[in-house]
Records
---
Amino acid sequence: MSTTRRNTSQRLTLVILVLLSVTAITLDYRGDASKAIRSIRNVARDGISPIQRVLADALHPIGDLFSGAVNYGSAVSENEQLRNELGTLRREALENQTAEHQLQELLNEENLPYIQNLPTLVAEVVAGPSSNFEATFEIDRGTSSGVGVGMPVVDGAGLIGTITAAGSSTSVVEAITDPGTSFGVSFGTPALYAVAGGRGTGYPLSLSNVTASTPVTDHELVYSSGIAGASLPAGIPVGTVSSVHYTRGTLTKSVLVTPVADLSGLSTVTVILWFPAP
Amino acid sequence: MTPRAWLRVAAVVCVMLFVQEAVLNVLVLGGAHPDGFLLLAVAAGLIAGPQRGAVIAFAIGLVADLFVLTPFGLSSLVYVLVAFGAGSLASIPGGRAPISFQMMAAFAGGVAGTLLFEGIGVLIGQPRLPGHELVAVVAVVSISNAALIIPATAAMSRAINIGPSRDLAGVSGGSAAR
């Protein structure tokens, strides 16, 4: 009898907790409640940020030790300055080969703003993704430094991601490889447009809306499109075409783009202080 | 559970938060890292039984949800289900759960928690994690859960004041927090 009562009580508790969780999820999808939850999250992130930085400085060597043990090949001492220099050189090389002319033409023909004229802010990466289900990282700049949701984040080579949450002293950047990411890109001369989407950490982006007749070549440089209402300013290098596949009888091509920026082990990034059109 | 016990649980969760941010997030293998909060949820289920374990896991999930971009409440929902499952497993008559049982339960909790998170996430419109990445996450989370469950259960049992030699079958009877 008592076992039955206990089981009923346990199940009732389970049902209540599940309902509470579902209610929280539902509230997060609603406008006002969602804003409140976002604010609470930003406050929480800002709250732990100072302690987190101290602990990260103290404990990262331990994490790095283990990480180095399991990822020895990739953990060999690469510092960010070299990374940035390498990225810049890669971008310059790519631009010299194929894209400088295209970029200039895009700017001339479509009167797009030149990315280097936009104000920028250098930020330090203070934490990696907290969840295995998102390709994000945290930077040490927030709304108090002028950072806002939607701003693009780049390094010497090109686009890294966009700001998806901004507290007063920290912000969360969603990498372009996150499966939830999509944004407009352009390539070729004259400019052709497509939508790039993330496919997960360490994997190339995929381009959608590329018709079968669209000319796309390997190693072609892909930029953010910046067309009206775009989520990113025009002309930010995104990646190079690494694979073009067409299956006979289909209407579109399968195109993969490898990001020009090295998204692993970032420590310093640049935020472009540019808001997407509302 | 007494308010003091809740405070101790909160302290354990805080410590795990910083360990997660400063250490576990750096232990990336195949693009995945251990999930300390899921580990604590499994430990709560194993130590406190299905009912109290699920309540503790719900609270742990709310904290975890503050630091991710996935919908608020998703982690709570997953942790509640995993903790309830772990607690139910640990409540099966047969006396005190041996270490090997805890490790197996933690491994299973890692697999179930990750797949539930992905499955429920997709149902509510979250982007689907690519298959190869999901495999890596399942492997890393479940193996690290199994490896770290002993200290996690020790911390959780101290927090809710249940001795390590406690008969888990008895815990489900609800005497743990009396």
---
Amino acid sequence: MTADRPLPYGDPAHLAAHQFLVEEAALLDAADYAGWLGLLCEDIRYVMPVRVTTARGAGSGTLAGMGHFDEDMYALRKRVQRLATDHAWTEDPPSRTRHFVTNVRTFPAAVGELRVQSALLLFRSRGDTREADLLSAGRTDLLRETADGLKLARREITVDESVLRTQNLAVFL
Amino acid sequence: MLDLAAIVSQVRRGMIPAHIYADPAIFALERDRLFARSWVFLAHESEIPAPGDYVVRRVLADSFIVARDESGVVRVMFNMCLHRGMQVCRAEMGNASHFRCPYHAWTYRNDGRLAGLPFHEEAYGGEDGFARRDQSLLPAPSMATRNGLIFISLDPDAPPLAEYLGDFAFYLDFYTRQSPAGVELRGPQRWRIKANWKIGAENFSGDSYHTPHTHASVVDIGLFREPRASKRKEGALYTAGPGSGTTYKLPPAGNGQSDFAGQLRYVGYPDAMIPAMAAAWSDRQRALVAGSGFMVSAATLFPNLSFVHNWPQIDAAGTVVPFVSLRQWQPVSERETEVLSWFAVDAAAPEDFKRDSYKAYLMCFGSSGMFEQDDVENWVSITDMAAGTMARRLNLNSRMGLTADGKPLKPPLAAAFAGPGLAYQGFGEYGQRHWLAQWSDHLEREPESRSVRDLGAAW
């Protein structure tokens, strides 16, 4: 179902997908997590495999059966609910984050769905004495057309480090 | 100038000079006196199931290849080429019959033996000039396994592992031997935190006191029933051999009967797993669960391997599913630690249990876990605060559970706790003091002088 070449950048489907990702990033940087959940399909799968250093030609460079995230809607809702409590210390005071989304490529998928690849650079700053963290990742998303517009049905995050340089993933990518 | 004797004497009375959590001089002593000597966990046999499988793991700066050789024997080899010192294997994992150094192509079998050396005849005059035959990558000075857990010690005269583990082996089985099939590990997730490595090790060794507050949010959202303070202080804290840990008090069994299966069901184990747990554990281990009614939770095996067993609700229907995680606090510097966090599950468990238990793990612990997130925030902050001048003027109080004259606030549980070692019900820093006492023992002892291997010199 997947074309080899991305849609032209002027294609309305590509423009809609690109806008979706930029608007999503704006919600995350504003810590509007409830709003972010509204962009997700009820059957969302949100995964972030663990990367490993392997010899060239020796496998995928990801760890079998282990991710940093492997979430369904229940798990994501719990994470968002937690951040909204008065006791989520790791984000109180909150991080200052900036999700830089670029290299967006859109591919036609099944009817009513788009496969979208993007590059993400997440800048995360905490407190006033610590070095800031950077997380670099590629993302492959499945966007679905719904009555409420495009929604995220699946996201696979391919992080570019085998050892993350951030204290936790109390953030979404 | 470090006054080690003064530091250790403070620590031994339960007062901790705060700077030890961010002090480069202390870190150097830990490297030279503790990690150069202690048994340290590297990997689990299930991570390298087939001949040729390997993972590369470290003890501080020392890289080791942990490989299963062609005959199925697990080997641990120092990952440094004998010739010019390159890291022989630069992948983290894989499968290989040989490791070839990229510098001059010296090649080693996966049991460590030197198999190939280009131009042996022309460059060295053959065996006469360089005896290739008996060379191999340096093996770990000591290596042993327990329940498939592979430990090494940089001390060639380390006590036998079984002797070292002592009474902690009793508790280790709850995490790593839930059936005769043993456990399988997945992972590790790896990430770096700007925290001193000791803080995590101490936390898991016995800090039930932090749970109600640090982890209040996971109770707020209905993920976990147990951390409420009233519940947490009913648990027992034990010290045993080189380890210590926390437990939860299980609900009383019906009709005064001890009910092994009922207690395991309460924490979410399916009926399909319970007979194997009964078969794998001794009468005394079963009695801790059934008669005493305690279920293991967090633990630390000195120095830097910790365990956790929890039972969150993994779906909207409130299904309770337990998980086990092993985690290692790998020191990077006095202010930075690499965390390695594995998901562990009984190898013989039903596939749907493995799937659900994995979900439970991811929600609670590891790089994204909702418990772990708040822990790490605290530990980074402690390390920050410990680095300054004022921290050198403050001894932190680690005397919880002791009276002014150093006696336990209440007597240890005797018959009410079936496990070995010493156990107390309620809050107290028994495990942390036990961990710090071992830390003190190592730091006080002068490092041994070690023999140096000479490579292929003929005179």
